[in-house]
Design a protein that fits this description.
Chain lengths: ~70, ~300
């Protein structure tokens, strides 16, 4: 599967199928810090990602001035 | 995982509510939380004109969308800060959002109107970029809302933002800032009413709302915000939230309910000392307001 990560934008390849929980553990990304979007669809932590999928780990934390 | 409301498959889990939601029930959840905040803190009524400060990011665009869907009278305000490609791209998201909904977007460009960008202002005034940016935005939000005759200025600060600001204020025991930290700051002394209708939603929820509702926003972080203190405070709170979901909400809403009334007098006294800036007429406690000082330093011939 292709995994797209942000800030900075980069792509990595992982072998599926993988649970979202395993995917996040492998990429060392905190569950609450991202949305997991598989082939354009938002999924929960108990979903399984197939080898053919494209996954985006979209960060949700924003900073800056208040 | 099933939706807590209808038992259909969930698309998002919200750990502090120990719940999953399907797409329609999550959208309703978000709009309900905003409506609850607007009503509970008496932010504005259906008849009042609201100006939403939009950055092109997830929070402000989600807020604009939700307020429109709830039937409020809302226009957007975008401030161009001159942060290179980041500003150009974020402006496009704000414009596209407005165009698709035939909504009104007021735009102010800091370099074109005041002659400096954030990098220049930050360096000239020896302020951190986020400090110069925040100062400029707060000034322009207020002046544009007053200029346009709006009743209220709404910003996209969410639960995570407010909890992080609270942590910073508590770490410094800054009573003046604590006194001003509230979802509603009433109008008076030259200030328009300011409200934070997303205070009951975490930033993960506003991001999910945008993804589910097809709202395109700038995902990349501002290049000038790297390493700022606000992000460090968020990291500390995220660690707490990880082991104890709901900690952030307890911290923030416990303060608003029980701590805020104790320090409200500090900010009230501060307001009484306000007078109009001789240069721009904005309220200030100094001889000249901080924004005018920033403009003077940033545009001084070197």
């Amino acid at each position: 599967m292709k995994v797209i990560m942000r800030n900075p934008r980069r792509e990595i390849e992982l072998r599926g199928p993988l649970s979202v929980t395993s995917l996040l553990a492998t990429t060392e990304v905190r569950r609450e810090a991202v949305l997991v979007i598989v082939d354009g669809t938002l999924v929960t932590a108990d979903a399984t990602v197939e080898d053919s999928a494209t996954v985006e780990l979209r960060p949700v934390i924003s900073g800056g001035s208040s | 995982m099933k939706c807590r409301v209808c038992r259909d498959p969930a698309v998002i889990e919200v750990r502090r509510h120990n719940a999953g939601f399907c797409h329609p029930c999550f959208v309703k959840h978000c709009r309900d939380q905003v409506k609850k905040a607007v009503d509970a803190y008496k932010m504005f009524s259906e008849n009042e004109r609201v100006l939403v400060a939009v950055s092109g990011g997830k929070d402000s665009l989600a807020l604009w969308d939700i307020l429109v869907k709830l039937g409020y009278r809302v226009d957007g305000l975008y401030i161009g800060l001159g942060i290179g490609d980041y500003s150009s791209e974020s402006a496009q998201y704000a414009r596209s959002f407005a165009k698709a909904r035939e909504a009104t977007l007021v735009e102010v460009d800091l370099p074109a109107t005041y002659g400096f960008d954030i990098a220049t202002g930050s360096k000239a005034a020896r302020r951190a970029p986020c400090s110069a940016c925040g100062l400029s935005k707060r000034h322009l939000f207020n002046s544009e809302a007053l200029r346009g005759g709006y009743d209220v200025l709404a910003t996209g600060h969410n639960l995570d933002d407010e909890a992080a600001v609270l942590l910073g204020n508590v770490l410094r025991w800054d009573l003046a800032y604590l006194g001003r930290q509230h979802p509603v700051l009433e109008a008076g002394g030259g200030f328009v009413r300011k409200v934070k209708p997303l205070v009951r939603l975490a930033e993960r929820e506003t991001a999910a709302y945008c993804v589910l509702e097809g709202i395109d926003y700038i995902v990349e972080e501002c290049p000038m915000s790297v390493g700022n203190r606000h992000l460090a405070y968020k990291g500390v709170l995220d660690d707490l939230e990880e082991s104890s979901p709901g900690s952030k909400a307890s911290f923030l809403f416990g303060y608003l309910e029980r701590g805020s009334p104790l320090v409200a007098g500090v900010s009230a006294a501060e307001r009484e000392a306000l007078h109009p800036c001789p240069t721009c007429a904005s309220p200030t406690v100094s001889e000249v307001c901080a924004f005018c000082k920033l403009v003077e330093k940033a545009t001084a011939k070197r």
